[in-house]
Amino acid sequence: MSAGLEAGPNLELGAWQKLRMRAIFEHCKWDPQSQDHSVLARYPLFLCSRQLSELRSLAENLSNEALQAESEISRRPDLWPVLGIARRIQRALQSGVSQGATQYVRVMRFDFHLTDLGWRISEVNADVPGGYVEGAGWNSLFAENYLNAQAPPSPSRRLCESIRDRLDAGDVVALVHATTFSDDRQVMMHLAGELGRAGLRPVLAGPENIEWRNDFACLKGETGSVRVNAAIRFFPSEWLPQLRAESQWANWFSDSQTLLCNPGRAILLQSKRFPLVWGDLKTNMDTWRRVLPMTVSPDQVPGNARKDWVIKPAFGRVGEGIGMENVTSNEEFRQLRRLAERTPQEWIAQERFETTPVRTDDGNVYPCVGVFTVNGEFAGIYGRSSRTPLVNQDAQDVAVLVRNDANRGER
Question: How confident is the model at residue 406 (pLDDT cuts 50, 70, 90)?
Fold first, then answer.
């Protein structure tokens, strides 16, 4: 079992049900149930302060190395095909090479897993990371039940404060998302509340509601358009070309006078094929090389070693399309392997690592600790746990608390 990362006992059912109801109404956690099981775990995970310090340092180093690498890759269009970037997006990036005018707030989430060799990451969510509702709301609600432990910082608050520091009171912030998806809507409603408390004016919008004038983002209305002062995009970069041409989707990849979180160029880091270009960069990637397992194109994996590698799509999300032998069903694994062999430029193979399980009242689970950074600085934690080493859409959201060194986090 893992040392220093431990699960607390299940909360009494009535107390947990009250937290669940508050999560829905106070923090917009509208999807607390998935089919026949609860999305929200009844137990918390406890980190010790030493582990928190280590995760903070690793995430900040990873974030800063990534941003330096992105700056270099953005000037190297010869590397974009290696990353699996669609040609239409490549053209948008080419025409949108920064002239120094673009304003950004950058948020990332690194997914950490504890192993016998220490912390390892499986990926970075550098484009439209999720987990704000849980990393802010569920953590803080659970912390109320423990005298000797506290919630990490709220990633929602850190993000909104970072935006507020660049704007004036009452400025308009567009929350751009796929409006038909309730799981996206809940995140935007949650962030809207935080922006309002920060003194800003949030407006929910779909990407089709945004137009661009002289490098400024504007919100279209029945009587014209209104310039917005900032935009938080919760619509994946690789989806943007699917919008109608009149949506001006390519402008998300171009210079912007409007403060953007995140810019379209974040796709350069979002691609899981990012490690395949490290050898062509001058940027020092020491932290990444230390904590990310070896990553190669699928056609470089010997046939007799496939069980030692995990197959992933270059732009998969929430664990979709991941193949892990003896975890993914045999039939699904064979299908994914065939797809990766047919189009290796759209996939990666990642050397498999063994996650250390954590004991809970309901049995062993495999935790994933998502660590947020905003502009390169630690900004909070989002926890998930799975019954298998593959943390995907079936995983539970679990509160992550930091216990004081002198105690064990008792209630």
Answer: low
